[in-house]
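Risk mitigation, structural track. In case the binding assays with geranylgeranyl diphosphate fail to produce interpretable data, a predicted complex structure has been prepared as a fallback.
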Amino acid sequence: MLDTAMPPASLEQSMNNFIEAQRARIDPILLRRFEKQKNWPQRLQESIRYSMFAGGKRLRPILALSVVELLGRDITRFENLFVALECIHTYSLIHDDLPAMDNDDLRRGLPTNHKKFDEATAILAGDGLLTFAFELLSEPDFARMFQAEHVLRCVHQIARAAGAAGMVGGQQIDISSGSTLDSEKALEELHTLKTARLLSISVTSPALLAGSHAAILGQLSQYGDAIGLAFQVYDDILNVVGNPQDMGKAAGTDEKMGKTTYPKLLGLDGARARAKDLCAKAKSALATFPADRRRPLERLADFIVERIK
Ligand code: GRG
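Fallback model:
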């Protein structure tokens, strides 16, 4: 029989408390940064703020913040990086919801950006956020806190993760071949690009900025790639077993659209096992770091495969 049970309430509660506590550290940083932007046209500003502050989990900046602390660095120096990662993520969601892409009406329980505003404004809000991310990463007051070659390497890697060889490319593959993928390998290639690259760069970018050794970057990259894919495997599972109220969007949409998903290829139990394997692989990549420092990243790996939204 298929195991459709969600995690026990107490475990779920402690996970949510942890994420909420981390989110409470990120949100003021985002708010402060967006309060500064006074010179954007009013409607564009409203549209951008609407999606930036619509209740996302802040997973990407939380991952980056946890890596900064793993490395024993001062988080205040990395604030522009946290904001930039969330801007790129939010842009991708606004554009993904557009009629030309997924044509979704709801995101995080609220009308999607183009429903609340209009299509042109939503396109521009996405464009504005993507560009703003790179403005933040190249801002002189931020960049001068790190070695120039480290900043350049970090910006280059973020651009690659977000662009046509990464998330944008993955979206193209998804649009062109969503229901014709017939192997786990093909599905993995798609989701590595579309979902995992941005999550993985959220993990490695603080270390790139900090100029960490190749061995540390290698460990973080293994962790980031594994949680990135685990996130998508679990996203597919949530689309089958999740509660629309918790998720803030409809469930069962993948099946309705005939999409190839992990539960479809592996069965629900098989997909759960794959997500757990990836989570274990991610955690084992961090085994040589001190236990107290790696703990938040271990909890994030668990959260990714046990969340309810
Ligand atoms: C349009 C360039 C472009 C890319 C779109 C990210 C993406 C590619 C599409 C989003 C559709 C989707 C459901 C992808 C699966 C994984 C994913 C990114 C889910 C949403 O991320 P969360 O759960 O979002 O971190 P919140 O709402 O918490 O911020």
